[in-house]
Amino acid sequence: MKTILVDAFGTFVLENIGIFSDMHKLLDEYPNRKIVLTNANDEQMVTFGLTDLPYEVFTLKHDPDKDNPKYFETMLAKFNLLANDVLYFEHSLEAVKSAESIGIKSYFYDAEKKDMKALKQFLDSNV
């Protein structure tokens, strides 16, 4: 069963709102393990509301950021996963390209549109 990698701030956690409830409900439909990925350092974890999420959280505190493939290589190693064990969605095109460059099936999530139907289709097609 594939692990679902979820972008944190701007996707799963929205500024001045907190957890995006529609996305949380959608993700909870899947029994798959979920890991929230962020670049946040300790201060940003608090500022952005990332300290009390319903899923595991992974950060490298900007060393490097998600636009660097090493971020994903380090994350996979930490959780003892292979690129084909996971799928990822993210609002940063650079991070999506970075993940794809090491073989992670990824989806660019348009944070402006918040298209849950398209996200569900991506998840259904790849889990």
Summarize the structure.
This protein is an alpha/beta fold and 127 residues long.
Description:
This protein is an alpha/beta fold and 127 residues long. It has a single domain, classed as Rossmann fold (3-Layer(aba) Sandwich), CATH 3.40.50. Helix content is 35%, strand content 21%.
Elements, N to C (H/E): EEEHEHEHEHEH
Total domain units: 1
| Secondary structure tally: strands | 7
Strand fraction equals: 15-25%
Q: In percent, how helical is the residue content? A: 25-40%
CATH third-tier fold name: Rossmann fold
Cα-atom Rg, whole angstroms?
13 Å
CATH architecture: 3-Layer(aba) Sandwich
What is the rounded distance between the termini? 7 Å
Order of adjacent strands in the largest pleated sheet: 5-4-1-6-7
Secondary structure tally, helices = 5
Structural class category: alpha/beta
Would you state the CATH class?
A: Alpha Beta
Shape: globular
Task: Summarize the helices and strands and which ones pair or pack.
Elements: E1 3-7, E2 13-14, E3 18-19, H1 21-28, E4 34-38, H2 42-47, E5 56-59, H3 69-78, E6 86-90, H4 93-101, E7 105-108, H5 116-126
Parallel strand pairs: 1-4, 1-6, 4-5, 6-7
Antiparallel strand pairs: 2-3
Features:
127 residues, alpha/beta, 7 strands, Rossmann fold, single chain, 5 helices, globular, five-stranded parallel β-sheet, two-stranded antiparallel sheet
